[in-house]
Design goal:
By secondary structure, the chain is α/β, with parallel strands linked by helices. 41% of the residues lie in helices and 10% in strands. The chain is built from 18 helices and 11 strands. The chain has a 4-stranded parallel sheet with strand order 6-5-8-9, sandwiched between helices. Strand 2 and strand 3 form a beta hairpin. It is globular, with a radius of gyration of 21 Å.
Length: 423
């Protein structure tokens, strides 16, 4: 029986670190079937550099059932059937969000892996490679794995350091609070966030494009983190680690592709640890937590709304119009909420959309059940020394290092342009 795509990836990771990659490729391909070479290609990170989702097999109507309907899963009508009933991906509509992959249990659709090309860099250590971990990562690799132990495990893989993206979520909470203060003056005004969810942003841009003027003009915390690292360390490479395939596509968007060099999922990182015999729970603890409660709770639905509301109250306590938020939890609710807004049913001034139920902790490549992930995120948020970024000395220090002398410069300062995005 031919190995699965995930099995092939694990074997190639192990061989990369052992120095016998080509021998393993030859062994896999010689023992495989007609699709194996394609799996090897995408597991190695090859293929169209602008694409994430690839079709390896052609399925017909008889090979899938209602529980594996990739056509229905696609938000943008990119997965269709030809005249003979075969699945076809229309590249012109595809955003490479990866939603279709989650419904495919036949390995017909796969997402490109981006780790193997990094191994030489990680082992050579001539260029610093930073791991940027999503706020949802807390507890994903076991109850005994602290952020400090995770940092140590990533260093054993060859990463120069680990940065919590939550610290840059702190920065964006300040920026988003200022954007709200600038744009929402009356009870009729409203803004759309969440900048952190590429599925939500993609839905607005492609399907509900009339609402684009209401999107807050901020990059995601992932992009902010990547750009921040590269400003301070111009020769560095940046690797985002999160629970989401759609982040691989976001990192390739033309206006922000300068920020992130590769994206790994939690599931892939688990495979990498297993293939290299690294056990995070046994690592030394290297603590270095600098984020506030606000940045840490971005990982769950409602976290962005609370973060920005708390930050606004902290820096603009006298603003008469307070944040009144509504959250959409999952794709179905996102569509319903955006449709309501399009029909002038405006019930809030701050709309937060999360493409996955539960938020990022409910992402397709998370390792924990959503409710457990949410509880761990909330606990980690409560353990922070600072409640908001305005109370966090590390945020102010970071802004200084980036050439930003005051919080107000986040809206218009030249140095703060790395956090700005035009939709």
């Amino acid at each position: 029986m031919s190995p699965t795509y995930e099995e092939i990836f694990g074997r190639l990771v192990k061989a990369s670190y052992q120095g016998n990659l080509q021998e393993e490729i030859d062994a896999i391909e010689s023992a495989g079937d007609e699709h194996t070479k394609h799996y090897v290609q995408y597991a190695l990170g090859k293929g169209d550099p602008d694409k994430v989702v690839f079709q390896v097999k052609s399925c017909d109507m008889g090979s899938v059932d209602e529980n594996h309907n990739c056509e229905a899963a696609c938000l943008f009508d990119a997965v269709v059937r030809d005249m003979e009933g075969h699945v076809v991906i229309q590249d012109r509509n595809c955003t490479h969000c990866g939603e279709c992959i989650e419904t495919c249990s036949l390995d017909s659709l796969v997402d490109k892996k981006e780790f193997i090309p990094l191994v030489e860099l990680l082992q050579g250590k001539e260029v610093p490679v930073y791991a940027m971990v999503a706020p949802a990562i807390i507890g994903q690799f076991g109850s005994e794995v602290t952020m400090g132990k995770l940092r140590a495990a990533l260093k054993h893989l060859g990463f120069y350091g680990m940065v919590e993206v939550a610290l840059f979520a702190d920065v964006l909470s300040l920026k988003e609070a200022l954007e709200f203060d600038k744009h929402v003056k009356t009870d009729k005004d409203f803004v759309l966030t969440s900048c952190c969810c590429p599925i939500w942003v993609g839905m607005v841009k492609k399907v509900y494009d009339k609402l684009v003027p209401h999107i807050s003009p901020s990059v995601s915390p992932m992009v902010a983190c990547g750009r921040g690292i590269k400003r301070m360390h111009p020769c560095a490479k940046t690797v985002f680690i999160g629970p989401c395939i759609a982040k691989k596509a976001e990192a390739k968007e033309p206006d922000i592709r300068d920020a992130v060099d590769a994206v790994l999922t939690f599931h892939e990182l688990k495979q990498i640890f297993e293939a290299t015999d690294i056990h995070p729970e046994d690592m030394e603890d290297i603590p270095s937590e600098h984020s506030s409660t606000s940045g840490r709770i971005y990982a769950r639905t409602g976290g962005v709304s609370k973060s920005i509301s708390d930050t606004l109250n902290r820096i603009r306590p006298d603003k008469p119009v307070k944040i009144k938020s509504i959250q959409a939890d999952g794709i179905k609710e996102c569509k319903a909420m955006l449709s309501d807004i399009m029909n002038d049913d405006i019930r809030a001034n701050f709309y937060e959309g999360m493409g996955c139920i539960g938020g990022c902790v409910g992402g397709p490549k998370a390792l924990l059940q959503t409710d457990k992930g949410t509880a761990l995120v909330n606990n980690y948020g409560a353990a922070a020394d600072a409640p908001t970024p305005a109370d966090n000395p590390y945020v102010l220090e970071l802004l200084q290092q980036l050439g930003i002398d005051s919080v107000e410069e986040l809206l218009s300062g030249e140095s703060a342009a790395i956090f700005q995005r035009t939709f």
